[in-house]
Amino acid sequence: MTEPAGAGMEGIDVERVTEWAAERTAGLEPPLVFTLIAGGHSNLTYKFTDQAGAAYVLRRPPLGHILESAHDMGREHRIISALAATAVPVPATFGLCEDKSVNGLPFYLMEFVNGVVPHDAQAAEPIPEAERRSAGEHIIDVLATLHLVNPDDIGLGNLARKEAYLQRQLKRWTQQWEATKTHEVPEMEESARLLQEDMPAQVGSAIVHGDYRIGNMMIRAGRMAALLDWELCTLGDPLADLGYMLNNWSQPGEPGADANATGIGGFPSRDYLCEVYERRTGRDVGRINYYRAFSHWRLGAIMQGVYKRYLVGAMGKNRDFDLEKYKLGIHQRAESALKFLTQ
Length: 343
Hints:
The chain has about 350 residues and is an alpha+beta fold. Helices cover about 40% and strands about 15% of the residues. Helix 6 packs parallel to helix 10 and helix 7 (about 185-195) runs antiparallel to helix 10 (about 290-310).
């Protein structure tokens, strides 16, 4: 979805934002042209260019949102700025605006990074086959690098609680499930029981991205040029990131793989990714199926919340939302979770 800038640019007060940005970005040449490059119920991402052709990115909360704590621009800006001192590829930041008189809600500016965001198979096709393996190798290397960063060393030690990550997550999403349940899904209940009973001990803690998948990465020349979308970042058990990534890493020939970026072929296998991660971090991945199950179960709980909101009309009328298909997706997540816990 793109939209040219102007007086009616939704989500951007062009005049005030331009003035604010010009004071903090050396050499900026107004007027600026804005384009919405990522929207929806998550944080909004705009690209803007000046008259010299220099490109930047503005991130702000979604339109009409109420709960600012769920879209904390200051927190996201803090994380990316801190990681700039590490080998984790993140865009450079140029400033955080917390003055709501400028654009209604907080926002921050960062570098525009060129490349491909392979959110699905079609978007991944431009990546030359010869570069897909090296991209996958770099993706797992970046994950290991992130998890080896001591959050205390870069000023993120108080970002969140470090201990009892799985316990906290299970409690939170069980409560979410119970609060939004509209129908019985026995596999969700049984998975929750098994996840609680057979929980691995957390060994240390790390910076957890929270949404580590290839669709949140900028790929260029066979490498990850930037890791994006840090809004779910926390501290805790790093193997949760690995399990989540593996669930989103399709391999050719698997059901539904043709629609997914890594399913088009040329990328490393999941087994290879696990081997590299274990070697690089020294962490035992022998219980990775638990974390894959946890990821499926957690997404099932999240999806149930969305399903109920649409079911009761809290999201307004949306004829493009297929309730039955989405409901089936919840069951599929629950079944996948139980499969990983019992195989």
